[in-house]
Structures are given as C-alpha cells and as structure tokens.
Design a protein that fits this description.
Layout: H1 3-8, E1 23-32, E2 35-45, E3 50-54, H2 61-68, E4 76-81, E5 84-85, H3 90-96, E6 97-100, H4 112-122, H5 128-138, H6 154-166, E7 172-176, H7 184-199, E8 203-207, H8 211-217, E9 220-225, E10 228-234, H9 240-251
Parallel strand pairs: 3-8, 3-9, 6-7, 7-8
Antiparallel strand pairs: 1-2, 1-4, 4-5, 9-10
Helix pairs in contact: 4-5, 5-6
This protein binds adenosine-5'-triphosphate.
The site of adenosine-5'-triphosphate has 10 residues, from helix 2.
Length: about 260
C-alpha cells in the first residue's frame, strides 16, 4: 500500500480480531435523578457488522452511545468494546472508537486544522497533519482548514466532526443521527464513507429516525423501548413495510 493510500485509509490495517465482539453490553442500567432510562439493556454487535438503533425520542439511544464511548457512566451492567472491559480499559476503548454525535466535540476558537492536530496529538496519530489534510479533502473541507470552527455553518462543522472521528483510524464507529445538519451532498458523502468503512471490515452502530436509512445502511436493526431491546432483526430479509409495521406496533403509530 502506498504511503498516501495508507494515510487515507479509514481503518487500521490490523483491525480487531474477528472472534471478539465489537460491542458486548449486558444488563445495562442507567437512571437520571432516579428516573430509569436504560433497564437491563443487552446488545451484541459482531465485529465487522453494521447495526441501526431505532427508538422514539427520549428512549435512551444517545445515553447508550455516551456510555459506550465512556462519556457517561452506567448505573450497573457491563460494557466491552473489542473485548476491552469499560471498567478497566477506557483509554483503549476511546482509541478504538470514532464518535459522531449531536455535539461536534470541536473547539470553536481553534481552526479546523488546529482541531484535528489537537486530536491527532491526543490519539498519537502518526503523521497527523498529512492524515488530517487527506480526511478534510474527503469531507469537502480542504479549503476551510484555516478558518475557526465558530465561523463554520452547522453542516460544515458536522463534516469536520466526521474527519475528527476518523482521524485515528478507529475500528468501531458510533454515530448518533449522523445525517443531522448535512445537505444532500453531505448525506451522499457520509453514505460513501460508511460503505467504504464497512467494506474494509469496520463495525458501525448508528441511530436514526429514518427507517429507510436504517434498512439501507445496516446488517441488522434494533428497536429499543422501555429502556431495553424489544426487537432485533437482520436486514437481509426485512422489508421497509415490515419494519414500519413493527415500529408502529411498538410505538402505537407514533411518528418516526
Ligand atoms: N444529562 C441528563 N440529565 C437528565 N436527564 C437526561 C440527561 N440526558 C438524557 N436525559 C433523559 O434521558 C432520556 C433519554 O435521553 P436520550 O438523549 O438518551 O434519548 P434519545 O433516544 O437519544 O432521544 P432522541 O431520539 O430525541 O435523540 C430522556 O428522557 C432525557 O430527558
């Protein structure tokens, strides 16, 4: 592989061992001010698979992702990412996850490039400047590298957040409504990035409110309600009509 191709690769050459699950969650509980949000939630994402996480507003999808990436603590239960137990190996877990969320996790007063170099240092990314430039080119932000993040539009910030999430070649992507704020071109761009990432063996867990996207972009869909998984199905033999009916059956016709 050439040096440039290496720098542009979305995944490390040696992805995690195939016999280790990308995500393994058992009996997860989480409450806010004594109000339970997750109640004994269990979930497994095999390595190299893509999973869509569905559920109405406020059902705990973001809460789950924040626990997986180590930004929030579970009340009880266990979380393992690529075999790493979250109680003992938070650093290793963070190193193997790329996270795109509602918040961009960027510093507004730094420029686009300064942000990526900062995260490059944090994750000890080799030749970080070169890699940052390749990724910024890929997300259509190469011309804005010297602008402060606070001067960017929401969609542009989201594109930089994508470059930040991919910078350290994570083997697992956690994406919280990743299409939010992106225009048509941006949506196509992330679909392309996701397809490439999955084709190279990356694992993906993403939330969405769009059933069509869930079906098109995943190997299995999971619906959560009442703080736990109430439905899980492979997408290969699932139609949109079936998924829509199931969702409406669970949420009583509530709009997705
Ligand atoms: N920091 C917090 N403090 C108190 N309550 C919180 C906090 N974060 C989330 N919650 C509550 O936990 C519940 C689940 O929120 P969460 O953001 O995980 O839902 P979600 O499924 O991601 O929703 P959406 O589809 O709207 O993004 C909600 O009732 C929310 O009000």
């Amino acid at each position: 592989m050439s040096k440039l191709a290496d720098q542009g690769s979305l995944l490390p050459a040696n992805t995690e061992s195939a016999d280790v699950q990308a995500i393994e969650v058992h009996n997860l509980k989480k409450s806010y001010a004594f109000k339970p949000v997750l109640r004994n939630l269990s979930l497994t994402l095999p390595h190299g698979q893509r999973m869509a996480l569905l559920g109405a507003n406020g059902t705990g999808k973001t809460t789950l992702l924040r626990i997986l990436v180590g930004l929030s603590k579970a009340g009880s239960g266990t979380v393992a990412i690529n075999g790493w137990d979250s109680r003992y190996a938070l650093q290793e877990i963070r190193q193997s996850i790329g996270f795109v969320a509602h918040q961009p996790y960027l510093y507004e007063e730094l420029t686009v490039l300064e942000n990526l170099l900062f995260f490059g240092q944090l994750y000890a990314v080799p030749r970080a400047r070169e890699r940052a430039m390749v990724l910024l080119e890929r997300v259509g932000m190469a011309r804005r590298v010297n602008e402060r993040v606070r001067a960017l539009s929401r969609g542009q910030v989201q594109r930089v957040a994508w470059a930040r999430a991919l910078l350290h070649q994570p083997s697992l992507l956690l994406l919280d409504e990743p299409e939010t704020g992106l225009d048509q071109d941006g949506s196509v761009l992330i679909d392309t990035l996701l397809a490439e990432y999955a084709a190279h063996g990356g694992s993906i867990l993403f939330t969405t409110h769009q059933l069509e996207r869930a079906l098109a972009l995943s190997d299995q869909v999971v619906i959560i309600n009442g703080g736990k998984v109430v439905y899980q199905h492979e997408t290969v033999d699932l139609t949109l009509t079936d998924l829509r009916q199931t969702y409406q059956g669970i949420y009583g016709g509530k709009q997705v």
